[in-house]
Amino acid sequence: MSTKTIAIPVEELYQEMEVWYPAYRLREAGFKTVFVGTGKPEYKSKLGYPVKAEADVKEVKAKDFDGLIVPGGFAPDFMRRSPELLQLVADIDQAGKPVGSICHAAWVLVSAKILKGRTATCYFAIKDDLMNAGATYVDQEVVVDRNLVTSRRPDDLPAFMREFLKLLSK
Fold this sequence. Notes:
Structural class: alpha/beta
Shape: globular
Largest sheet: 7 strands, mixed
Strand content: 15-25%
CATH class: Alpha Beta
Order of helices and strands: EHEEEEEHHEHEHEEEH
Number of strands: 11
Strand order of the largest sheet: 5-2-1-6-7-11-10
Number of domains: 1
CATH superfamily: Class I glutamine amidotransferase (GATase) domain
Radius of gyration: 14 Å
């Protein structure tokens, strides 16, 4: 059983599969997951499915986690407005710990300013945002650039989690 803890930021209008699939896969593999909110005790998905925040971003630090996965949906547009969340993402990345991003979650990576000089993927509609942030965009189901794992959409989740779990095992 691992003692590693992975942060999963949550916000309103998250994409259900992009929160719960990674959470369950990580738990199955023996990792602890922590849903990190931006100030509220609970958030609703795009379809109304609730997730309870287990920690507040204002009360955690990068040292508390061994990795982080940012889910997509409309939630990243809210997440990127939290300076504390952007700092957490940047600090975890700077520490070389695994950082994952699915679909529209790449907006958070853009706002955290961690994409310059890296190769990544995302939902095609925001590829210009990635490129404007200095990333090389590729249209692949999963892209790994050092400690960064990115995917395009929910269909890519199996490949995304395979690569994220590989990074955690190092």
